[in-house]
Amino acid sequence: MNIIPDLTPNISSEGVQTPTKATEDAQVQETEKAAELNIDDLSLFRNAPSGLSFKKLRKRLIKNTRQALDDFAMLPTPEETAAGKRPRWLVGISGGKDSYGLLAILMELQWRGLLPVDLLACNLDQGQPNFPKHILPEFLEKHGIPHRIEYQDTYSVVVDKISENSTYCALCSRLRRGHLYRVAREEGCDALILGHHREDLLETFFLNFFHGARLASMSPKLINDAGDVMVMRPLVYCAEDDLEKFAKALEFPIIPCDLCGSQDGLQRNVMKQMIHDIETKMPGRKDRMIKALGNIRPSHMLDTSLFDFNEIGIKDEKEQDDNQ
After folding, report:
1. Greater confidence, 142 or 37?
2. Residue 19 resides in a domain
3. Is residue 161 domain-resident?
């Protein structure tokens, strides 16, 4: 894996390490590069705070996103770029802090010439009661962002099919994703880009661990069942707390999710609280957990489909002599 220059030494939002010489050199290079580019030229950042803390926050989010783009081969290959192929990405925008942050980060990378793709923001209005239909179109038009607003009343379908005491999430997500795949096809997009972050992956892992009897999280990159749309999650290394601070600093017009928020006691919320408690008692554990998802030892698990335990055995003396 190629390592993106570490402008902020940790993936985490907690703690600061002593910069290495390489880090200091990278910071100097980044400062010189920033001097040539004025972030205020990008409409989304025109009223951004000028303080050092926001600059560090923005750089950390950019660095973590670039690392994910590189680690999981999300960017077009040099051959594709040389051939003049410019991918088009459909960026899912819900009106929440995560999707706003995703869009802003991708737009900055695109603006800096680090993301050679075209972006199309897409909001799926699912017919939720009291959904403020004007907010996202006004925001996207104000900043000159190419977009498509799609209306599909999946809310009525969900509340009709699922009882009040059951979880809406699975069906809601499945219906939403199906419509986004269709929009991606209609718009000629190669990929659907989603704003799931570090905590989303950890919560999913523990949901599968405790309730699904399997070790699995969210995939950073996958192909849909039909095999024609790539799904990518560039924020998998980004901390939810960082995205919340980022959204507040840039004053994004947040739209609450009344459908999900109307249900108490969701197991995902239980997992979120558990992870929060662990992090409070042992700071830095979220970072260790996310790193563990990329540091798997099949021979130390119990899945015989991943590791052939029949291959393990003590060689006899003759075989050992033959191999010497």
Report:
1. 142
2. no
3. yes
